[in-house]
Design brief:
The structure holds 2 protein chains of 2 kinds. Chain A is α+β, with helices and mostly antiparallel strands. Chain A contains 5 helices and 5 strands; from the N terminus they run E-E-H-E-E-E-H-H-H-H. By secondary structure, chain B is an alpha+beta fold. The chains are: A alpha+beta, B alpha+beta.
């Protein structure tokens, strides 16, 4: 089946099977391997992307459900010249990542979190990150990064 | 260069932001599943649905006839063509016999021994084709009774002919007669039974591998999510496939966490590599999470009884311990060393206990193999000892601090009765600092405030020690290690003075690309940006033992220091020639070579250029080039230690246990990058507190089915399960490596579980709860409270 998607600002038409997950379409058809698969029960959030501006788990939805959608993946977050988005920069500055595997999903969730909850407290940030698992960082520096990214996004 | 000089160099002790982060943050990481090779097929493994069964027949005809299927490999295809997976550590039983070492086949040979055991490998053009074909493989099983726990293992149906009572070994350390004599004279004896719950490592990147073969050169390449590619290659070529090493390249690209579970040579890695030649193609396999739960090596799973003999003042006289360790269905690569060498030798802890006797029985069960998981033996030792020490104190009416103070080692070096010699430490200093940071003085007020809300507050101490950078090789060899434990580093200075470092250590989150670059930049007086670190590729790195046991900086970093010594020695000769001075008069500091007592100087970059453009060069005495390799074999373990203090608040009506405050003070010796070290501590704490509060791997005792086989069933720690950790350090530099470092990767996971459970027990003491096994999930805490009432 043909699906039209606008991914990271670029329109594509891809040919997928009806049971192709959105994350498979991104990774395999569009070769955007920054979006990761860390589980098979929609628990870990490594596959989080922005779909029409909202964070979703791309492992839990079919590509064919999203004809005409606009998607932003981790590859589309930085500026065209490579300058990182304030949230990406905050993760680097605060050491909010170690192995990097959960990071794309964590950053995409955090961008969405801060857009929708620009004043979230530390406790609220922790709750709002419930859908993203990280096994390396112990979350402390992720929370710190989200706070910093939140401030940077607010002033941008 | 000595450790104290080194610590004063620029970039050392600086929280340099990580060089690797840009690629991870922009989606440009390169993990195994992100790689696609030409002529690539996909593999899916048919796994046993039974915990224990005889395979009566396998029919692959229907599967092989399905679209896109290249081949279905079964046990018959590999039988006689390769060895089984080797175990890297030989343990000798107390009666002098070697451990039982049954075959660990690449694909099942007539029998399956745990749910997830690999029965067949289906190779097809696409993942969907391979999955569909795997469904069509018909395996006829004759189901046998299964056993999952160590306490039932001796009486259960034998898994292996080689171990009729499912017993792998009985191992002991210490002087039993002396210990028994000390117990006979004791004023007080404290006894404790406890279970160290089984865990699933769950690195966020599931295991993945691509086996590849080039017929023209007869060379194999294996891309694999692995922590030690050279060890993987050595084990696979020398012990399983009988291939020459120079024909096999193992690449561990970006690896999404390991925590021990990616140290090992797994059957999938071998099967893919071997089959790549049979089908003359590349074959990719990526575990899904359910498969990872079933087939990754698990951690912990000990059942122990411990006793401490004390004099009337609470001074430890002797300790005896018996532990039953679950090894799972087969011996994973380093499984046998975990409940012995890496466990019992740590049971002296931070204390002057003159006599210790430890006996370990290791058992086969119908569960996934158990091997090293973050801490590996040391968390089990710490959990046992720190629970026991706290209980000793309570039984004698002493506080958790007082019982520790009365028994702390306070002079070094210290020879324990269980083989290790601690080089240096400051155990009281760590505890005192932790008590200050934790505001222990304010605990009573906080407890009263909790009580006013109907909540129970408790405080728990844990003073851990660990042994890192396992070595020296000759001693480890005498203890049964079948591999060397050194590390290798190569420094390649380029003509313009930038540097590429090749290290046998592997980074899967630890930040080697930054920390190691800091070490080199500091020594050579060049910017950190001018140093790149290469790891994880047997085709580029001379050799290596990889990353495990918090060894990277202390062993891998020390190898780099040795290579830098050689670079400096040679560069000084080149500089001496340029400055027309004697070699002995040349000094090197801040990136400049100078001649003692003169104002002559040449910068490092000029020396580098001269080494590669040797027009004005002592060619009669010195080879051109500036490229040095060193191997470093440590003379002792390093001994990070510290004290952790946890406060929990429990709602007795629901059993919900919240960690309210957690303070960790660690002595890691010298620290290169504090930001990275703190990150390691945070991560370790969450895994350790995770074990104590929520994580628990459960097999059904009747069927051997894994009941906690997904993130829906196995409670993974999430961001809102924790407070902000309060962490600090004390520094007594390691005395025997050139960096003064000790390692920080595992401490958090080692020290934290007993701090949490001691706090839980402290909170519930006045409700009559005296014993509690991890995890402190709401239902288990609530049940403990109810049973104490009954």
């Amino acid at each position: 089946m043909q699906v039209q998607l606008k991914v990271n600002g670029r329109a594509s038409t891809i040919d997928v099977a009806p049971n192709t997950l959105l994350v498979q379409a991104l990774r395999e058809n569009l070769k955007l391997t920054g979006t990761h698969v860390g589980c098979d029960t929609a628990q870990c959030g490594a596959c989080t992307v922005l779909l029409n501006g909202r964070a979703i788990k791309s492992c839990n939805t079919l590509a064919v459900q999203h004809n005409g959608a606009e998607i932003t993946t981790i590859e589309g977050l930085a500026q065209p010249d490579g300058t990182m988005h304030p949230m990406q920069a905050a993760f680097k500055e605060c050491h909010g990542l170690q192995c990097g595997f959960c990071t794309p999903g964590m950053v995409m969730s955090s961008v969405d979190l801060c857009k929708n909850h620009p004043k979230a407290s530390e406790g609220e940030i922790r709750e709002l990150l419930e859908g993203n698992l990280c096994r390396c960082t112990g979350y402390q520096n992720i929370v710190k990064a989200v706070k910093q990214g939140q401030a940077a996004m607010a002033s941008a | 260069m000595g450790a104290s000089d080194f610590s004063n160099l620029p970039h050392i002790g600086e929280s340099v932001r990580r060089k690797e982060d840009y690629r991870f943050l922009t989606g440009a990481g390169n993990y195994t599943d992100d790689i696609n090779l030409a002529n690539q097929r996909v593999a899916v493994f048919v796994r046993s649905p039974h915990a224990h069964a005889v395979i009566k027949s396998i029919d692959v005809a229907a599967a092989e006839a399905m679209p896109g299927v290249a081949k279905v490999f079964t046990g018959k295809d590999v039988e006689g063509k390769m060895g089984g997976l080797p175990c890297g550590w030989l343990i000798t039983s107390t009666d002098g016999t070697p451990m039982k070492e049954p075959p660990h086949p690449i694909l099942a040979q007539g029998k399956v021994r745990y749910v997830g055991d690999h029965v067949a490998m289906v190779v097809a053009d696409t993942l969907e084709q391979a999955k569909n074909a795997a469904e069509a493989v018909v395996v006829d099983y004759d189901v046998l009774p299964a056993v999952v726990s160590v306490s039932d293992a001796a009486k259960a149906t034998a898994l292996h002919d080689a171990a009729p009572d499912n017993h792998c070994y009985k191992w002991a350390i210490g002087d039993k007669a002396q210990v028994d004599a000390a117990f006979a004279k004791a004023a007080h004896i404290t006894k404790l039974d406890l279970t160290n719950n089984r865990l699933v490592p769950n690195a966020m990147e599931p295991r993945a591998a691509i086996g590849s073969y080039n017929r023209a050169s007869d060379e194999y390449t294996l891309y694999v999510s692995n922590q030690n590619p050279h060890v993987e290659r050595l084990l696979m070529t020398a012990f399983v496939l009988g291939l020459p090493e120079h024909k096999v390249r193992v690449i561990a690209p970006d690896v999404g966490g390991g925590f021990g579970s990616k140290i090992y040579l797994y059957a999938e890695d071998v099967a893919l590599t071997w089959a790549a030649k049979q089908l003359n193609c590349s074959i990719k396999w990526t575990a899904d999470r359910s498969e990872a739960f079933l087939s990754d090596a698990h951690g912990r799973d000990h059942v122990s009884h411990a006793e401490m003999a004390m004099d009337k003042d609470g001074k430890f006289l002797a300790m005896r311990v018996h532990t039953d360790a679950n090894l799972g269905a087969y011996l994973s690569t380093f499984s046998t060393a975990v409940p012995t060498i890496l466990y019992a030798t740590l049971l002296a802890g931070q204390y002057t206990c003159p006599q210790i006797y430890v006996e370990v029985d290791a058992w086969f069960t119908n569960t996934a193999p158990v091997d090293a998981y973050r801490g590996a033996g040391r968390p089990e030792a710490t959990y046992l000892l720190e629970r026991l020490v706290t209980k000793c104190g309570w039984e004698l009416g002493l506080g958790q601090d007082e019982i520790r103070k009365r028994n702390f080692i306070n002079s070094w070096p210290y020879q324990t009765p269980v083989a290790l010699q601690y080089d240096v430490g400051d155990y009281l200093g760590c505890m005192t600092k932790a008590e200050d940071m934790a505001d222990v003085k304010g605990f009573a007020a906080r407890k009263a405030a909790s009580a006013a809300k109907g909540l129970k507050r408790g405080i728990g101490y844990s003073s851990y020690i660990e042994a890192c950078g396992i070595a020296p090789s000759n001693i480890a060899g005498a203890l049964g290690a079948r591999a060397g434990l050194f590390e290798c580093g190569e420094i390649r200075v380029h003509p313009t003075g930038s540097v590429t470092v090749f290290t046998g250590s592997h980074s899967h989150g630890q930040g080697h690309e930054t920390t190691f670059a800091q070490v080199v930049a500091a020594r050579l007086g060049i910017p950190v940006e001018n140093v790149d670190v290469v790891h994880g590729d047997t085709g580029r790195v001379p050799f290596g033992m990889g990353t495990y046991g918090s060894r990277s900086i202390s062993v891998g970093g020390a190898a780099i220091m040795r290579a830098l010594d050689k670079i400096e020695t040679k560069a000084k000769k080149i500089a001496a020639h340029l400055m027309e001075a004697s070699d002995a008069d040349v000094e090197f500091a801040n990136g400049e070579f100078t001649v003692k007592g003169t104002d002559k100087k040449v910068p490092f970059g000029q020396v580098a250029l001269t080494a590669y453009v040797p027009h004005n060069y002592p060619l009669d005495k010195l080879e051109p080039g500036l490229n040095e390799t060193a191997f470093y074999d440590p003379t002792n373990f390093t001994f990070p230690a510290g004290t952790y203090i946890c406060e929990v608040e429990i709602d007795p009506a629901t059993g919900v246990t919240r960690v309210d405050r957690f303070t960790a003070v660690d002595d890691f010796g010298a620290i290169i990058n504090p930001m990275i070290v703190e990150g390691q501590v945070h991560g370790g704490l969450v895994q350790g507190i995770g074990q104590a509060l929520m994580e628990n791997c459960v097999y059904d005792p009747d069927t051997g089915q894994l009941l906690t086989g997904s993130f829906m069933d196995y409670a993974m720690p999430r961001a809102d399960d924790f407070p902000q950790f309060n962490i600090g350090t004390v520094c007594t530099p390691c005395t025997h490596n050139p960096l003064g470092t000790k390692g920080c990767g595992e401490a958090g996971a080692i020290g934290s579980p007993p701090a949490v459970i001691n706090a839980v027990l402290d909170a519930l003491k006045d409700l009559g709860v005296n014993e509690f096994d991890m995890p402190a999930s709401p239902s288990r805490v609530w049940e403990a409270i109810q049973s104490a009432k009954a």
